Amino acid sequence: MSGLAAELQAVARISCSTPYKNLEDRMAVSSVSTKDTPETQLRSLIEKFDPKDQRLIRSVRSAVRKRLPTANELVYDYGTSLVIGYSPTDHGVESIVSTAARTDGVRLYFMHGPQLPDPKKLLMGSGKQTRFIRVEAAKQLAHPDVEALIAATIDRASVPLPSKGRGTLVIKSTAAMKRPRRKLAK
Q1: pTM for the model
Q2: Helical (H) or strand (E) element with 67
Q3: Which domain holds residue 63?
């Protein structure tokens, strides 16, 4: 075997020897240019919204980031919504809170929503894992009732947030990364 062939075979072994641990890892493989930073990619996703919504998305992101500085920001573009999960790990299912931006507004989702104390009945939705509030302005997140919900969600987290450090921004999936949806049968 020539030196080049042996080298290529070694590279093939290295790149194929690390199987995806789960669907999220596979989805994280990006077809987007590698020179785009996650921040640049997120900026372009936010820019798809109306200017007013862009300001709200950015201000809510900043407020959540300030409240949860050690959490990783996990970004999912579902085409009709842009979701940012705030997680102590790189797994979306361990997110403590998430923001979801859609054309009809921004929502803040709380993991363990059905079990959270909500004396003011702020939480909406009927999901088994989460509940949400509609966010009209980032200052809502500083309201004592909303802060109490965030604190209760943090207390119930399956994985605690790191006590120090700074979380990272990770683009987990974008609509461009996904396979085309199957056409409906006629």
Answers
A1: 0.76
A2: helix 51-67
A3: 21-159+169-175
